[in-house]
Every structure is written in C-alpha cells, then in structure tokens.
TrEMBL record:
<feature type="transmembrane region" description="Helical">
    <location>
        <begin position="432"/>
        <end position="450"/>
    </location>
</feature>
<dbReference type="InterPro" id="IPR050833">
    <property type="entry name" value="Poly_Biosynth_Transport"/>
</dbReference>
<feature type="transmembrane region" description="Helical">
    <location>
        <begin position="456"/>
        <end position="477"/>
    </location>
</feature>
<dbReference type="Pfam" id="PF01943">
    <property type="entry name" value="Polysacc_synt"/>
</dbReference>
<keyword id="KW-1003">Cell membrane</keyword>
<keyword id="KW-0472">Membrane</keyword>
<keyword id="KW-0812">Transmembrane</keyword>
<feature type="transmembrane region" description="Helical">
    <location>
        <begin position="160"/>
        <end position="180"/>
    </location>
</feature>
<feature type="transmembrane region" description="Helical">
    <location>
        <begin position="308"/>
        <end position="326"/>
    </location>
</feature>
<feature type="transmembrane region" description="Helical">
    <location>
        <begin position="98"/>
        <end position="117"/>
    </location>
</feature>
<feature type="transmembrane region" description="Helical">
    <location>
        <begin position="374"/>
        <end position="393"/>
    </location>
</feature>
<feature type="transmembrane region" description="Helical">
    <location>
        <begin position="129"/>
        <end position="151"/>
    </location>
</feature>
<feature type="transmembrane region" description="Helical">
    <location>
        <begin position="186"/>
        <end position="207"/>
    </location>
</feature>
<keyword id="KW-1133">Transmembrane helix</keyword>
<protein>
    <recommendedName>
        <fullName>Polysaccharide biosynthesis protein C-terminal domain-containing protein</fullName>
    </recommendedName>
</protein>
<feature type="transmembrane region" description="Helical">
    <location>
        <begin position="228"/>
        <end position="248"/>
    </location>
</feature>
<dbReference type="GO" id="GO:0005886">
    <property type="term" value="C:plasma membrane"/>
</dbReference>
Length: 498
C-alpha cells in the first residue's frame, strides 16, 4: 500500500526520529554504565568538577567557532544537492581552513583567559593550570566540529551514527580506568583523551571521503565571509547560552558548594540527555525539510505542526514512565548520594513537555534565515533563565533551580509562539493544542502521584496514567501513519518471497 502525502509526511518524521532517537538511546545505555562508575568513583564533588570544566570548554568553543557547525552545513548542502562536485570540494576545503583557524583561536583564548576562568568559576583561585591544559580540548572540538558539519551536509547519516556510538564507547573504556586509579586527578586528562578520540574517529571517515586539503591563503579564506556572517548569530547565541550555563553553575559553586553543582548537573543531564533521544532528529532531518518549504505558507505551517505532534506523541509516554521510575534511575545512573537531585529532576521532566512543543517552533527563524530574530529569542531565554534559577535556588534550593528552569521554558514557549504567530503567520493547529493539553495534563497528574507518600497512589494510579498516555499516543500514531498496515505489508511480502 502506498502512503498518501499526508501519511507519508508522518511516516518520514517517525522514521528519522526513530533512527536518531535509537542511536541516542544506545549512547544513553552506554553512558549509564559510565555515569554510574564515574559517580561511584568520584562522588558528587568529582561530577561537579567535570561539569564545570565541560561547561567552560563549551563556553570557549561556542565563543570562538564562528558558528561553523550550522553555517557550514547549509553552505555545503547547496553544492551537494546540485551535484556540483568542484564547488563541493572547494567548500569543504574552505570549511576545513576556517576550522583550523577557529581551533587555533580557541586554543590561545583558553590559555589567555585561564586565570580569569579559574578566579570566577571557583570560589578559590587554584585551577589556572587545569584551564590551560583544557586548551587542546577546545582546539580538538573545533576541528571535529568542522568535519562533522561536512558529514552532515553530504548526508552521511550512518557514519555519523557510528561515530557517535563509538565515541561514547571509547569514553567508557578509556576514561573509567583513569578515574579508578587517579580519581579527580584524571578529570582533565580524560577530557583531553575523549576529545582526541572523537577527532580521530571523525577524520578517519571524513578524510576517506574527501582527502585533506587546507589553504590559509587570503584569496581562499575571503570566500568564507558569507558563511562566517551567517554563523555570527549562532556564535552570539552560543556565547549567551554557554555563559548562562557557566554563570549558574559558578553561582551554585560559590554560594553553596561543589556538591550542589553535582546535584544540579545530574538532574539536568538525566532529563536533557533522555529527552535528546527524541529531539536528536531535529537538526539533522527537520531543519533541512523546514528550510526547503519556508516560502510555502500552508506547507510550512503543516511541517511545523506535524513535527510538534509526532515529537509530543513520542516523548509523552516516555516522560510519564520516566517520572514513575526516576528514583530507581537515579540510584542506577548515579548513587544514593545523588537523591537530593530527585525533586529537581522531576520538575525538569515536566518541563520537557513544553520543550517538545516549543523546539520545532524555535527553528522557524533559522529556516527563514532570520538570524536577528533567532538571536533575540535565544538571548531573552538565557537572561530569564539565569534570573529565575538564581531566585528559585535562593528560595527552595536545588528543587527551586528546577522550578526556575521549568518556568523559563513555559515563558519562552509563550514568547516564541507569539513571535512566530506575529512575524511568520505561524498557526498552531487545534489538533496539536488538544494533544498537548491532554498529554501535559496526564504528565502533571503523574508528577503529583509520584510525589505522594501513599503507595497505591504512588504506584497504582501513576501506572494507570502512564499506560493511558501510551495508549493515546499509539492509537494516534497508528491512525496518522498507517504504521500497522505498513508493518503487516512488509512482513507479508517477506514471507511470500521466502
């Protein structure tokens, strides 16, 4: 049976969301083992140190990479789709040349700023050498980012999936023994080792497809100014985002202690990485599709609404069960020392419902090429996030920090939707609104049930609500995609040929 255009659209979204979500799920499973071992070996203090160092590296990287990870994909994709081999190779050389420059820039910026980073990140100024030693991580990340952008642009999705899985697997095998023997002293060397492994894995694939060509001549580099200008908004947004994250963690470390950062990071990473299993398809599949129809008003709205609908239906049952088993997951992923993070993780799980509805709409300015609007929306989010997290932490501790993040997500959704409605004539369909209201209501009810001390409410009622969310999503996905008929047809064809 052939799918109608309507059905085919839902099937396409479901297919690629499942593909990249599955890869992310495998990464999470491998990461579970690594996180557990790291948490047991280093405790909250070590996890907090890793969090602060990683956040700092990301901040420097986002500040110096000129947004190549996004703008390079768009530039190279145009030549790849036109099958213009000569311009494609020239574009790849250009990306690699600029990646080398950004790697050198990030390397020296990290070294120069290391005394300031040590002073303002920690309550005592004793980590300058650590930040100097992290400079190679910034450089390696920039080089890897350029090659990953090339692979995305030429649609090497299978290779990207393999690199992602191998990178997590090597991180487990290579770093855990270092933590076992050297404890906190192994944190910085482990970060360098992981960045080096990722770069090696990436260039082994990328260089085989397109042999290394780099040119630092001005006549070559000057052709990249359009790409650099396009990435400026991403750079500024990245600086603000990473800066907000760094500011929050530094604030927690200074007004509380490094264990508070560990609790904050464990709750944040569990929910964000988990939700990333579904959100991972956004940049790789949804963004190019949305860009391709940005001049077709009806199709554009339809593309956004379908993405919101499928994302919400897929993630809602997972979030409800995640809420139900969150205490057990914390014990499995970390240890009982991290149970103070439970309340924050529960609130952040609720916030993921709003993110499922908001994130597809956030891509509208990017698809329209409206970098100023994208920067405005992201800047507003970062400012409000810092303010509300600090207020929430002062009032209710780690739980309050989660409330601050959740409230920021809701306010940002309202702002993004109103902006998209006014500037791009985006209209959220009544069907999407209905499913969002239904699934969010079920999620809120599960949230209150799992926080109850009454066992039959905690497990019995919550389990029924989780199953209800699953049944609703499965029935809608089945009706929208014809998934059941497609599976039956494939199985029947397989047996008829055998």
């Amino acid at each position: 049976m052939k799918n109608s255009p309507k059905t085919g659209g839902y099937l396409h979204i479901l297919k690629y969301t499942g593909l990249f979500g599955g890869v992310q799920g495998l990464n999470v499973l491998i990461g579970i083992v690594r996180n557990k071992l790291v948490a047991v070996l280093l405790g909250p203090q070590g996890v907090g140190l890793i969090s602060l160092f990683n956040t700092t590296v990301r901040f420097i990287s986002d500040s110096t990479n000129f947004g190549l990870s996004m703008s390079a994909v768009r530039n190279i994709s145009e030549d790849y789709d036109r099958k213009d081999e000569e311009n494609l190779k020239e574009g790849i050389t250009l990306v690699r040349s600029w990646s080398l420059l950004t790697a050198l820039l990030g390397f020296f910026v990290c070294i120069i700023l290391s005394p300031l980073l040590s002073k303002y990140t920690f309550s005592w100024n004793g980590h300058t050498l650590h930040f100097i030693l992290l400079a190679p991580v910034v450089a390696l990340t920039a080089l890897s980012g350029g090659e990953l952008a090339i692979l995305k642009a030429v649609r090497k999705l299978r290779s990207l999936a393999v690199i992602s899985v191998l990178n997590v697997l090597f991180a487990l095998v290579l770093t855990v023994p270092l933590y076992y023997f050297f404890r906190n002293a192994a944190i910085v060397p482990s970060l360098i080792l992981v960045a080096l492994v990722q770069m090696i894995l990436t260039i082994l694939v990328s260089y085989r497809l397109y042999p290394l060509r780099v040119s630092l001549r001005w006549t070559v580099l000057s052709k990249g100014w359009g790409m650099i200008r396009l990435g400026t908004a991403f750079v500024i947004a990245g600086i603000l985002g990473s800066g907000a994250d760094l500011l929050i963690r530094s604030y927690l470390n200074n007004v509380a202690d490094i264990e508070a950062v560990g609790f904050y990071n464990s709750a944040y990473m569990m929910t964000m990485v988990y939700a990333g299993m579904v959100f991972s398809a956004m940049e790789t599949d949804y963004f190019p599709r949305l860009s391709g129809v940005n001049n077709l008003k009806f199709t554009f709205n339809q593309t956004v609404n379908r993405q919101v609908e499928v994302t919400l239906l897929l993630i809602s049952p997972l979030l409800s069960f995640f809420l139900l088993f969150l205490p057990q997951l914390i014990l499995s992923l970390y240890s009982n020392k991290f149970l103070p993070a439970l309340g924050m993780a529960q609130v952040l799980t609720l916030a993921m419902y709003m993110r499922a509805v908001r994130l597809p709409v956030e891509y509208i300015p990017l698809a329209k090429g409206d970098s100023r609007s994208y920067l405005l929306l992201e800047s507003a989010y970062d400012v409000v996030l810092v303010v509300l997290v600090i207020i929430g932490f002062r009032q209710w501790g780690i739980l309050g920090a989660g409330v601050g993040i959740a409230l920021t997500g809701f306010l940002h959704f309202v702002f993004v939707y109103v902006y998209a409605h006014h500037h791009y004539a985006y209209r959220m369909s009544t069907v999407v609104l209905f499913y969002a209201f239904l699934q969010l209501t079920l999620g809120i009810l599960v949230f209150f049930c799992v926080r109850s001390d009454v066992q039959w409410v905690r497990w019995g009622v919550a389990s029924v609500l989780c199953c209800t969310s699953s049944v609703v999503s499965l029935r809608v996905i089945k009706s929208k995609t014809g998934l059941w008929n497609t599976l039956v047809s494939k199985i029947s064809n397989k047996f008829s040929r055998s």
